[in-house]
Write a structure and sequence with these properties.
The chain is of the alpha/beta class. The chain has helices at residues 2-21, 38-53, 65-74, 90-114, 160-167, 190-201, 228-236, 244-256, 272-278, and strands spanning 25-30, 57-62, 81-82, 85-86, 119-123, 130-134, 138-139, 145-146, 152-157, 171-175, 177-179, 185-187, 205-210, 225-227, 261-266, 285-288.
């Protein structure tokens, strides 16, 4: 009987958050280990379906770097990275579109459908809703300028097609492929796309799923919450370093663009999204304006 009472207490803890977030848009950047481990994939799909059924509007933007690496390696293509961005020639771009816009996107859509949700997959090429400008050159750490190929920087997001899907009861699943002014596809960073989509939708929250527990402070402990100004200060003092730098930068840009809050959470934890959004303590780092 006590176990049943404890379950009821968990539901009651979630109730204020469900009431507060009802009808709000949540943009979830889905990537890392959570996309590879079968149990975590299943957990994530159930989370977003539950969110939809209790009145929230999840929008998924997914990555797929490891899967692209595997496909390129099987084809005998050497993939290079420049400051965290994949150097993308025409052949690599074809693989990026095939893996991100095809296989991975449809796998996520199918998984959501298996749990009773309704999802539609799309890329930034659909309705040209993610427009980007090709980066003609990037600086390496040595200062040299290198052409990264068909890599883009997001310049505009028109969220009309995403809004229509939300209003029709669907969960949009977005692959981070954009289009330039000439109609050519560009490879863009998934975190950046998630942040820009969240801004365009004026989302209540942007949730970035990673393979680490969250943002750590100067004492090395995970910070449950910090303000945008505190995050800037930690970045200036090099407390925030390495792969966390672009994650925090993405979160800060989204907050500056009108998103209410951003969260950086450990996607290796089952039901990470629900634990962060619907419990008092959460499991990651919440960044506020």
């Amino acid at each position: 009987m006590q176990q049943l009472v404890d379950k009821a207490a968990t539901l009651l803890e979630a109730l204020p958050y469900i009431r507060r977030f009802h009808g709000e848009v949540f943009v979830l950047k889905y990537g890392g280990h959570a996309m590879v481990d079968p149990a975590l994939r299943d957990s994530f799909a159930r989370d977003v379906v539950l969110m939809k059924y209790v009145g929230l509007h999840p929008v998924i933007v997914h990555g797929g770097g490891p899967q692209i690496d595997e496909t390129l390696a099987a084809m005998g293509v050497v993939s290079e990275r420049l400051e965290g961005l994949r150097v993308t020639d025409d052949r690599t771009m074809e693989v990026v579109e095939m893996v991100l816009g095809g296989r991975i996107n449809q796998e996520i859509v199918s998984l959501i459908g298996n749990h009773g949700g309704r999802a539609v997959g799309l890329t930034g090429r659909d309705d040209n809703f993610v427009r980007a400008e090709r980066l003609t050159s990037m600086k390496t750490r040595s200062g040299a300028l290198v052409d990264p190929g068909r890599v883009g920087a997001v310049r505009h997001v028109n969220p009309d097609v995403v809004r229509r899907l939300i209003e029709a009861g669907f969960i949009p699943v977005i692959a981070p492929i954009a289009v330039d002014g000439d109609g050519r596809s560009l490879n863009v960073n998934a975190d950046t796309v998630a942040g820009k989509v969240a801004e365009a939708l004026q989302a209540r929250k942007l949730v970035l799923m990673t393979d680490i527990e969250g943002v750590r402070g100067e004492n090395g402990e995970v910070l449950s919450s910090l303000s945008a100004s505190d995050a800037e200060a930690l970045r200036e003092r090099d407390v925030i370093a390495g792969g966390m730098i672009p994650k925090v930068a993405c979160a800060l840009d989204a907050l500056a663009g009108g998103v209410t809050k951003a969260h950086i959470i450990d996607g290796r934890t089952r039901h990470a999204v629900l634990l962060e959004l619907f419990t008092d303590l959460g499991i990651g780092t919440e960044i506020t304006r």
